[in-house]
Amino acid sequence: MEPHLTVGTKVRTGVGESAPTRGRTTIAEGVVERISGVAAREVRGIHALGGGFRRTMGAMRDRVPGGRSSTGRGVKVEVGEKQTAIDLEVVVEYGVSITEVAADVRENVIAAVERMAGLEVVEVNISVNDLYLPEEDTPETGEGRVQ
Fold first, then answer.
1. How far apart are alpha carbons 96 and 43 in whole angstroms?
2. From the centroid of its chain, how far is CA 53?
3. Which residues are within 8 A (CB) of 4 and not within 5 positions of it... i.e. 6 or more apart?
4. Chain centre distance of CA 3
5. What is the pTM of this model?
6. Who contacts 104 (Cβ-Cβ below 8 Å, separation ≥6)?
7. Where are the beta strands (DSSP E) in 103-146?
8. Rounded to 5 degrees, what are φ and ψ at 86?
9. 93 has which bridge partners?
10. What domains are there in the chain, each with its CATH number?
11. pLDDT of residue 24
12. 3-state DSSP call for residue 118?
């Protein structure tokens, strides 16, 4: 018999039930995007999330007050009541094993989302859209090949 408490003519159920069964928790897609983005960036070999044009437009948005945070850029999610699917667009550093970095990202994202959000991650799809070369950050010096 389910425990209950009678108050006047109303019957209240739930007394004696565990706290997690006494309401609903919903987690917004943006929260799962941010968790996924931070977890992906923690992996050695990931330079950035997003790809070329998206990164440029995202950087411009980040400069505008109220612009979207960069932690969700390059991340798309579908969130259900108990499960989520995640798509990531990444830029990897030159010289790393892309398959190893992708496996590490997948593992880190799944662990973070399942631990923090309590959602089962059914898939993490990773698209490597660009390769980061360290010399891309240095300004062009010296003379050009053509004068």
1. 12
2. 19
3. 11, 12, 13, 15
4. 41
5. 0.71
6. 43, 44, 45
7. 120-132
8. -130, 135
9. 132
10. 27-134 (3.30.70.1350)
11. 86
12. coil
Question: How far is 140 from 74, CA to CA, in rounded Å?
Answer: 28
Q: If pLDDT is split at 50, 70 and 90, which confidence band does 55 have? A: very low
Strand 83-93 versus strand 75-79 pairing type:
antiparallel
Residue 58, C-beta contacts closer than 8 angstroms, at least 6 positions apart: 50, 68, 70, 73, 74
Which residues are within 8 A (CB) of 97 and not within 5 positions of it... i.e. 6 or more apart? Answer: 45
Strands of 50-103, DSSP E: 75-79, 83-93
For residue 15, give Cα distances in angstroms to 9, 23, 25: 16, 13, 19
- pLDDT tops 70 at residue 121: yes
Tokens of 70: 């960069």
